[in-house]
Structure formats: structure tokens, C-alpha cells
TrEMBL record:
Its EC number is 3.4.21.89. The keyword Plastid does not apply. It comes from the Bacteria. It holds the Pfam family Peptidase_S26. The gene is lepB. It catalyses: Cleavage of hydrophobic, N-terminal signal or leader sequences from secreted and periplasmic proteins. The lineage of its organism: Bacteria, Pseudomonadati, Pseudomonadota, Alphaproteobacteria, Rhodobacterales. This is Signal peptidase I. NCBIfam families: sigpep_I_bact (TIGR02227). It is a single-pass type II membrane protein. Coiled coil: none annotated.
């Protein structure tokens, strides 16, 4: 004979099941949560920023589902990212999610000369953006220490990076950071972006593993369209601490901040 307690357990299981199903559908079709784990996109995105990725922006692929489990070949309802979009995508070889900025579209020729991005033989426009400063201290759950253009800087000191405003050929503008003028990826060969693939770079140019490092050498390389997950449009929440619960490290000035 079923008891009232038995019925309560069954109802609880049903409620949890439907809640998880609805959350999974929402995450797959509409918006996926994403925490910024590293400093490769400073100062557009900081370690500890929390955002929702717009899954509708570029359509759907196998990688739209957790564990790349969607039964989709190619892209469904696909649309092209615009140059300058900040995109979350699945790393083609490592199976983890990355976030970078699209700078090269299919058919483009991309190169970096003396730290300046060149697209189809022309340098992008750069304007002075002042300095980006932060405290040199452990950041985020991983306890990452920022690199500074004024190193050596002691822990707790002021870490400085040069900031420029970069304008791409389509008029999209955003800030980029420079740490050194002698970094390994400040001068590259010409990359011809294949059809159906994209060239990504981080805004923190001297602290980003991106398409400047070819896949054949263990880097990111070009990213095929089917690996795109969605567009990052707005920071919803931000915490500078090592835990979400350290409320005294929250950054209210970044809540609901548009991503440019």
C-alpha cells in the first residue's frame, strides 16, 4: 500500500526531472551560462565575469549541447558572425569552451606586424586608450597572477598595461591591451582564412592563446563554423574574488554591462 510519504517522494522526483529538462532545453536553445576563467580578453572581460551566451545568434550544431551531444551535422539555422563579435566556441581539438573575438572572416588574409593587426593588407585603426591598471594579486578560482608592462611589480602593487582602441574594417571598435613589444606573436606570417572558418584573437594581445598559434603546432588555429556556440552580449554579474560567495569582491559597476 502506497503511503503519503511515497507519493511525496515521487512528486519531488518528477519536479526535479522537469526542472532539469526545462533548464537543459533553455541552455541548449537559448542562453548558456559562462564564467570568464582567464585574462585573455581583458579589459573587455575580466576574470570572474559571468555572462549568458546567446545560442540563437549563429544557429545550432553538435556542440550546442553539453558534451557535444546534439545529433546535428554542420549547422542548423546557421548565420555568420560579424567581425568584432565576442564568441564562445568549442576548441576543435581540446573539447573545452573558449571565448575570443572574431577578427578574420572566411577569405580574409590576417597578419600581425609589430603588434598591429593587419586585415587584407591594411592595418586596423588604433587610437590611444590610456592605461589599464589593476592590482597585481591572485585572480579568480585558479589564482592567476596578471602580467604587467611595468614588471617587476610586487604582489599588491599597481599592474599597468597599455590600452589602445582598435577599429576593425566594419567600424566595430573595442579596447585591446599590450604588455610588451617583443612577444612571440607580435609578428606572424599571413594567415589565409579558409571558407567556413574564422580567425580569433584575444583582446589582451600578449596574454592570449588564439588563432595566431596554428593548430599544427598545438595552438588554436582556425575555428570551423560548426564549433561556434554563441555570442557574448552582456556581462550579468562579476566578482573579483576566488568565490562567488565573497560578496565584498563583487563588482557592481560591471553588472549588466554590454560587451563591445
Amino acid at each position: 500500500m502506497a503511503t503519503k510519504t511515497d507519493g511525496g517522494v515521487v512528486e519531488t522526483i518528477k519536479t526535479v526531472f522537469w526542472a532539469l529538462l526545462i533548464a537543459g532545453v533553455f541552455r541548449t536553445l537559448f542562453f548558456q551560462p559562462f564564467w570568464i576563467p582567464s585574462g585573455s580578453m581583458k579589459d573587455t572581460l575580466l576574470i570572474g565575469d559571468f555572462l549568458f551566451v546567446n545560442k540563437m545568434a549563429y544557429g545550432y550544431s553538435a556542440h550546442s549541447c553539453p558534451f557535444s551531444a546534439c545529433p546535428i551535422e554542420g549547422r542548423l539555422f546557421g548565420s555568420e558572425p560579424e567581425r568584432g563579435d565576442v564568441v564562445v566556441f568549442r576548441h576543435p581539438t581540446r573539447g573545452v569552451d573558449f571565448i575570443k573575438r572574431v577578427v578574420g572572416l572566411p577569405g580574409d588574409r590576417v597578419q600581425v606586424i609589430d603588434g598591429v593587426l593587419q586585415i587584407n593588407g591594411s592595418p586596423v585603426q588604433l587610437q590611444d586608450g590610456g592605461q589599464f591598471t589593476e592590482v597585481k594579486d591572485l585572480q579568480g578560482p585558479q589564482g592567476l597572477m596578471p602580467r604587467c608592462s611595468n614588471d617587476p611589480v610586487g604582489q599588491g602593487g599597481t599592474c599597468i598595461k597599455e590600452r589602445k582602441i582598435e577599429t576593425l574594417p566594419n567600424g566595430a571598435s573595442h579596447s585591446i591591451l599590450n604588455i610588451t613589444n617583443n612577444w612571440v606573436a607580435d609578428n606572424t606570417p599571413v594567415f589565409a582564412v579558409p571558407e567556413g572558418q574564422y580567425f580569433f584573437m584575444g583582446d589582451n594581445r600578449d596574454n592570449s592563446e588564439d588563432s595566431r598559434f596554428p593548430a599544427a603546432a598545438g595552438g588554436l588555429g582556425f575555428v570551423p563554423a560548426e564549433y561556434l556556440i554563441g555570442r557574448a552580449d552582456r556581462v550579468m554579474f562579476s566578482s573579483a574574488g576566488r568565490s562567488l560567495f565573497f560578496f565584498w569582491t563583487w563588482r557592481p559597476d560591471r553588472f549588466f554591462k554590454a560587451i563591445e
